Amino acid sequence: MTLIDPTKLEKWLRPHSMEWYEQLSKLQNKYMYPWMSTILEPNGELIFDNEATEMVVNQKVLDIGCGDGNFMNQLSCIVKEIVGFDITEKFIQLATISYKK
After folding, report:
1. Is residue 69 part of a domain?
2. How many CB atoms lie within 10 A of CB 51?
3. Is position 78 within any domain?
4. What's the distance, CA 13 to chain centroid?
5. What is the mean pLDDT of the chain?
6. pLDDT higher than threshold 90 for residue 21
7. How many angstroms from the chain centroid is the CA of residue 23?
8. Please, which residues have CB within 8 angstroms of residue 47's CB and are 6 or more apart in sequence?
9. Three-state secondary structure of 82-97
């Protein structure tokens, strides 16, 4: 068996760097987070989503790192106002297109 250090590859991009997100937005055309929890529900993600949802009812919300706007869309029907912010221009474009008013 041969193991290699992926950081030594010519086209290696540091995960969660600006370049990594830019590449992700162009290759996938959406924010893709395929990891699934192996812990049965309620898991951390579900608990977070539920608590965040309860906290923002009828509030003004700033979603920093909104990606393609998926979480914003989920909350848009229960908040007073929601603004998404992301450093990746392609994700902002996708969020704008998919935003449900």
Report:
1. yes
2. 10
3. yes
4. 18
5. 87
6. no
7. 14
8. none
9. EEEECCCHHHHHHHHH
27 is written with which tokens?
A: 């290759």
For 64-94, how does the pLDDT look when each residue is reduced to its tens digit (9 = 90+)? 999 889 889 999 999 999 999 999 999 899 8
| AA letter at 31 | Y
In a domain, 20, yes or no: no
Task: Give me the residue label for tokens 């990891």.
Answer: 35
Number of domains into which the chain is organized: 1
Task: Work out whether strand 60-64 and strand 81-85 pair parallel, antiparallel, or are unpaired.
Answer: parallel
**Tokens found for residue 90:** 């392609």
Tokens 């902002």 correspond to: 92
Residue by residue, DSSP assigns 33-74 as: -----SSPSS-HHHHHHHHHHHHTTTSEEEEET-TTSHHHHH
CA angle 18, 23, 28 (to 5 degrees): 130
Question: CA-to-CA distance for 78 and 8, rounded, in angstroms?
Answer: 47
pLDDT score at 45: 80
Q: Does a structural domain hold residue 80?
A: yes
Q: Which domain holds residue 70?
A: 55-101
